[in-house]
Predict the 3D structure of the following.
Amino acid sequence: MKEGQKLWTKEECVLAINLYCKIPFGQMHSRNAEVIELANLIDRSPSSIARKLGNFASFDPKLQQRGIKGLENASKLDKQVWQEYMHNWDEQFIESEKLLAKKKHTTIEKFSYIDLSNLPDVEGQERQRLVTVRINQSLFRKIVLTNFNYKCCITGITQPELIVASHILPWSEDKGNRLNPKNGLALNTLHDKAFDCGLITITEDLKIKISSSFLKNKDIPSIKHNFIDYDGSSLIEPQKFFPDIEFLKVHNGLFKS
């Protein structure tokens, strides 16, 4: 370690990997406003935050496959924090959000601008459950849309009001992967509904597969342009976290071929 440098603590690394999950790979530099904000929060330079994000990138196997190596001087602590995150997404991410809220002297829902005004009029544990669900949904949306650079991964649509963070494994059926970006696709609302109904699926080699039921209406222009024309096309690749193959296999089993 160079003179004048200070060792990173686990708390600082947890806050850094939290940010790593929230911003696109191409924006992990010292000029990024979110990088500067975290630097100010933990009394480090923006350059040191950017380097730490690069350290985490060095562990990402999908980035390595694309020839992106990240930085090479990652520490044992970096690797430990990375592995803890990858093996327990939901718990680790929420804990890192709580830590970030504590550092900012606020709450998760306030600094993430989560709207709780229209919650049902309930109290106690039921209200807390609904608040937790709303927070989780908002965080998942941010991670997934960031991962796909705020565009539908089938059509390339970039209108944010029309894009949703779609779970590959349903929210209600897999409680351990509700926040896992490898369980998410950024889809426009039409294709999200078709994906949820099993009329579209994504193969293990990230190809779009369309149900043959659409062929009955192939002469309808909207059916042809919105579905049939995409059959066999490649998914628009994510920035960092690729869909988990095992999750895709489960969805493929529900596909209405």
Q: What stands out?
A: Residues 198 and 255 are 4 Å apart (CA to CA). The longest helix spans residues 124-147. The radius of gyration is 20 Å.
